[in-house]
Amino acid sequence: MTIIDSSNISLNRSLSKLDNKLSQALNQRKQQHRYRSRRITSSPQGVECIVDGKAVISFCSNDYLGFANHPKVREAAESGLKKYGVGSGAAHLINGHTEAHHLLEEELAGFTGYPRTLLFSTGYMANIGLCQALLDNNGFVFEDKLNHASLIDGGLISGARFQRYLHNDIDSLVKKLSRTDNDAMKLVLSDAVFSMDGDIADAPALAAVCKQHDSVLMLDDAHGFGVLGQDGKGTLQHFDMSLDDVPVYMATLGKAMGTAGAFIAGSEALIETLIQQARSYIYTTAMPAAIAEATRASLRLLQDEPEHRSQLEGNIGYFRQCCEQNATPVQHSETAIQPVIIGEDASALALSNKLFDAGILVTAIRPPTVPEGTSRLRITLCATHTREHIDKLVDAIQDHNPN
Fold first, then answer.
1. Does the predicted model carry a pTM greater than 0.90?
2. What are the Cα distances from residue 187, in Å, to 132, 212, 297?
3. Which of 48, 91, 203, 229 is deepest in the core (most CB within 10 A)?
4. pLDDT at 324 > cutoff 60
5. Is-contact 79 293, C-beta < 8 A?
């Protein structure tokens, strides 16, 4: 006699309903040309790499200075592995905070000019942890319309009254700040370099407004740290600003530094508050110590070898010159992020695929990551690109772009 397990039947029916519902939504996304697919890289990170078994020139990496596979950074990581092993074992507050982490925090503080820094496993976790630690439902958070998703999510998760001002529009921010309670905690969050457009926030104006309205300014310098400023110290050095102007500063380590993780820089009281209250710091395993050692090597490279930044600056200028000569519709940007707006989702995706067939990797960025009607090729330049690489990219866009 066969015994039928009714609980399994019920479970299978529930899963079937779930899968049907999810499949419908996925099919709709495909029809909209917004289905995201992953390509597989089988080589070290670099401007010349192997993706889906094909040799390509990459123009979509955030490894701006070419440190991700730099011999000195690799050697530091290997040395860290030998000393500390692979995993950190626990959170920083348990037993995961090693000498490597501690030295990196001190060196980042010295480099940025802030009293202290605090490491996080990712930039996303840094932004969420900051908002959650400083804000509650009695406070206010104000964000640029084009802020990164991690800042938006951090503001929403905080429970504070959430408002967004028009992109890089100081008057829009002032109007919103003017309507708030002066005694409430007010946090203004902005990308320093906007990740999809490559433009730079008007940080001096933001700082001035925040001082006038008793608000705290936080800048996310993920795409500025290591590349902007005379010494690569980021957006603050670019504008000759200090801790007094930007009390809370965040930057990631997986872009110009070529490793992984992030840090928040600020006063002694701010960092101690985050250690006590930032849930995404307290309740997660520390980054591997070997990554911290690799990042220390990246920071030394940044200071000892300024030619990497000089090469990047030269490549940005050369790319823009080529685009102007070829009438390529690149947006205004003085950073490594150079967006070419295509418009329709299907057209951007088709152009990205044609470029891949021609041996060039540039990802098509589509809504909801960018506004409707602004699907684009988000081209990122690196110090390790050659002029021949750039020539090939601009020629290929010219050959295949129907616009």
1. yes
2. 11, 13, 34
3. 203
4. yes
5. yes
Angle between the 387-400 and 345-357 helix axes, to the nearest 10 degrees? 130
The encoded tokens of residue 207 equal 């700082």
pLDDT of residue 181: 75
3-state secondary structure 212-242: HCCCEEEEECCCCCCCCCCCCCCHHHHCCCC
Kindly list the strands in the beta sheet with 364-365, ordered across the sheet, starting from the edge strand earlier in the chain. 337-343, 375-380, 364-365
Q: For residues 73-84, b (16+ Cβ closer than 10 Å) or e, as one string?
A: bbebbeebbeeb
Instruction: For 252-300, write each residue's pLDDT tens digit.
Output: 999 999 999 999 999 999 999 999 999 999 999 999 999 999 999 999 9
Query: Edge to edge, what strands does the sheet with 262-266 contain?
Result: 116-120, 262-266, 248-252, 216-220, 186-191, 140-144, 161-165
Give the burial string for 188-205 (b: 16+ CB within 10 Å, else e).
bbbbbbbbbbbbbbebee
3-state DSSP assignment of residue 186: strand
Which pLDDT band holds residue 7 (cuts at 50, 70, 90)?
low
Tokens of 347: 């057209």
Instruction: Look at residue 341 and tell me whether its pLDDT is greater than 60.
Output: yes
Distance CA 129, CA 349 (A): 35
Helix, strand or coil for residue 323?
A: helix
CATH 3.40.640.10 fits 71-304, yes or no: yes
Query: What would the CATH number be for the domain defined by 38-68+307-400?
Result: 3.90.1150.10
